[in-house]
Amino acid sequence: SAGAAMAATDISKLPVVTQELVAPPFLPKHDQVAKGGPKVVKVRMETIEKLVQVAPDGTKMWALTFNGTVPGPLIVVHEGDYVELTLVNPKTSTMAHNVDFHASTGALGSAGLTLVAPGEDVVVRWKATKAGVFVYHCAPGGTMIPFHVISGMNGAIMVLPRDGLKDNKGKSVRYDRAYYIGEQDLYLPKDKDGKYKVYSQPAEGMAEMLEVGKGLIPTHVVFNGAVGALTGDNALKAKVGEKVLFIHSQANRDSRPHLIGGHGDLVWQGGKFSDPPMTNQETWFVPGGGTGVALYEFKQPGLYVYLSHNLLEAVLLGAAAHMNVEGKWDDDLMIQLKKPNENSTPAMDH
Amino acid sequence: SAGAAMAATDISKLPVVTQELVAPPFLPKHDQVAKGGPKVVKVRMETIEKLVQVAPDGTKMWALTFNGTVPGPLIVVHEGDYVELTLVNPKTSTMAHNVDFHASTGALGSAGLTLVAPGEDVVVRWKATKAGVFVYHCAPGGTMIPFHVISGMNGAIMVLPRDGLKDNKGKSVRYDRAYYIGEQDLYLPKDKDGKYKVYSQPAEGMAEMLEVGKGLIPTHVVFNGAVGALTGDNALKAKVGEKVLFIHSQANRDSRPHLIGGHGDLVWQGGKFSDPPMTNQETWFVPGGGTGVALYEFKQPGLYVYLSHNLLEAVLLGAAAHMNVEGKWDDDLMIQLKKPNENSTPAMDH
Amino acid sequence: SAGAAMAATDISKLPVVTQELVAPPFLPKHDQVAKGGPKVVKVRMETIEKLVQVAPDGTKMWALTFNGTVPGPLIVVHEGDYVELTLVNPKTSTMAHNVDFHASTGALGSAGLTLVAPGEDVVVRWKATKAGVFVYHCAPGGTMIPFHVISGMNGAIMVLPRDGLKDNKGKSVRYDRAYYIGEQDLYLPKDKDGKYKVYSQPAEGMAEMLEVGKGLIPTHVVFNGAVGALTGDNALKAKVGEKVLFIHSQANRDSRPHLIGGHGDLVWQGGKFSDPPMTNQETWFVPGGGTGVALYEFKQPGLYVYLSHNLLEAVLLGAAAHMNVEGKWDDDLMIQLKKPNENSTPAMDH
Ligand SMILES: [Cu+2]
Ligand SMILES: [Cu+2]
Ligand SMILES: [Cu+2]
Ligand SMILES: [Cu+2]
Ligand SMILES: [Cu+2]
Ligand SMILES: [Cu+2]
Ligand SMILES: [Mg+2]
Ligand SMILES: [Mg+2]
Ligand SMILES: [Mg+2]
Ligand SMILES: [Mg+2]
Ligand SMILES: [Mg+2]
Ligand SMILES: [Mg+2]
Ligand SMILES: [Mg+2]
Ligand SMILES: [Mg+2]
Ligand SMILES: [Mg+2]
Fold first, then answer.
1. Of these four, A2, B123, B314, C320, which has the most CB atoms within 10 Å of its CB?
2. Which residues, listed in sequence order, are joined to residue B281 by a DSSP beta bridge?
């Protein structure tokens, strides 16, 4: 159409940059405030099927992934930029895949234009018109949609306002670090002995996984693909005085992120930057198929736990990450005035 | 009382209109901006018990309904109007019914004044003092309350501000179309062979349905009463450039509406129009016993899916509707630059 | 450190008050608008383990509590005040306990500084820097965390703005009464005969309770510790014209409070007072590990039900309270124009 031809001409004059995607919880290099006008941002994602361990007890599942990680990489652009995605399905894959970007407009979020069989690739370009963090996920149609999503095939894109983030008063705010936490609900079938089954390829487990899934109660709820993926050596890091942006996505199931010992100073519940953030939240809420973004300035050193505050899900099913924060303790904010066991006071009657 | 007498005198001078209720997803004829001052809006609802098919596999259940549909009809009035409801329980009914309007004030939302046995009718009038979309449902007391609600006996009323809707900047907005989607969670018992049971009358299934319901995991989650009720010939319709209002109610269980390929430009999360709407949402949230309203201007033609973005609920349990949008495709917003399978690029190592 | 020394010096000059905590749903004596500057507010909590009845059918469980009640007492301070907690674990206890205040900053919300074995006590002081209602709960580490929380060991603190609450326009509002409702999800194991088990001490039931808990579906959802704890003689009370503040906490699982026959005129969803409240809500949402606060001016006398509007949870699992409101009925808001059964109108065809 004439409109399309015009748009193509305009876009052809825009600067083109390639964004090297990285594995979560990290973000690709990006500017918080855009330099110059709209760009075409090229990204490449491969649809990788792989057998992965999802819990310390050795439980394995066939993960369906973008670029080999659960969640897929966080893409970062600015409002008004164009995302040019090359989606590659390797010859070694067993299934067709595509991608539905919640941030995009039309064609089922581009899912209708990106279905690639093993050995195929496709290129699609779409305009990021709305600022915020949005889920993307594979959506090949019918029961394949929940199967691919609960198998790990989802991630998120952050569309920053061109002039960066604003607080609840409209004042600019910057983050010193940012982490992307993708929460994944798993529905793993067990054999007759109560052991989690391992299948020889993804399709083999599909009917049984969907049967577990139909009951809506996950066997695991994990951050970044596995129980404990963000603890120990992989714990998140920060320093006192730093403002850390916590970007949380959940492509399928409700969640409620919380930072033990800290807060969400600014919380974009819903994850969209055109809205004023909520403030001082203890726990925020992410609907299934959505995101939540929180900014927190750390005030105290030590261990923090970032989790879903259904504590059964956090502790028994896996939805927890650790964070180590360096710096100086502030006695004004908290102090232990008397150690345990020094002097017992008489207990009251109850 | 004197106050009541005065009020009655005043109300007796108001214009009286009758609103013909229609089956969802459609809305009765109404003005977005009220003409003139407050009115008395007369509506009539019948409590209809009927055996209905709720899934393409032939599953049947006794639906308890207002006016024969699940959900019941959307009533539309303006803030300050009076709703005068005639509630009729046909002689052929097997149960007593009533109605709790969340939008009303006092007497358990009028449930305490409207209980009608088979063959009875009642007239109640209440003032719509709060703008927004509010659930109504049958609430006959005790375990009858959840039984009637999970059997389909719920709907919603939209109380518009007299001067219509406003966006997040306080600017007036109008919708070109509006659809009412009532989401219903069902808890259908199975027999020993794993087949859904059919009962000879509603009361016969009550104990077993509540036993399933006590587990809190529905067997079906449907829009407008049945799996597929809003797909195929019954798909929603719109045109590029139209602003469509999506009115969603869920009388019992949390939900998370999402429009695949589109967005909520303006989202009244909580469904109340006295609050500024959220913007640019991918997915919004409706608490059980609440509503959510989204306005979207369509930018691209094609198929859209409106669903609850727990994809297990949408695809396996039924919580999905289709929408066909006509118009011109906009290549600026999205374009397929390279078709699948034309030129494979070498896959990266992972 | 020098900073700590300085802070200690400053704090030592502040007025010190002792707050006598009381059993929910009641609040300790407090000022809505703070008199004078920041204070040190001393509170004392004991970690009481006790066998309690949780349902009218005689079902019993070992409650782990703060001060003997589920939920623990509501603490009330003002923003900028310091909370000085003495936490006492009686010699008769069988377990170690501590407290994580979501309102505090650092040391896992003070959980890292407050672990007390039976017979020990500890004193910790922390500064209330953020206004709102925040959960506190026991968090002794690992699987003890969900076990103590689902056994009842949680409560809330209300940190009021020094100048009191403000409505959505920034205008001061006061409440005439306030009630604290702590919602608790229970996961009680059954024996082979389908009867709820009673254990000889808390630790005996831990593994089995966590096994039920892992399924994420509670056997009971109760307000203030037991099915029916806030009904009958213990129903909440108010008068027409009074503004009542409903403070709701849920330390583990999502909830959706609703007042049948009334509304949330002002709703702090998320429970934080630095944000403008939502208005006119029928139902609000509390994420697991969070709070929700609603203010309502009663307009009609009679019975109200305050519940979680998943009606299965409210009626079958216990999540409901009653409220009796005295005053004059307002016919303008609602009136029964025709009693049931006087004149039947002919039913329509459907
Ligand atoms: Cu896929
Ligand atoms: Cu999606
Ligand atoms: Cu009914
Ligand atoms: Cu209700
Ligand atoms: Cu404890
Ligand atoms: Cu906590
Ligand atoms: Mg890569
Ligand atoms: Mg840029
Ligand atoms: Mg979209
Ligand atoms: Mg009709
Ligand atoms: Mg009107
Ligand atoms: Mg109401
Ligand atoms: Mg006490
Ligand atoms: Mg004070
Ligand atoms: Mg905290």
1. B314
2. B264
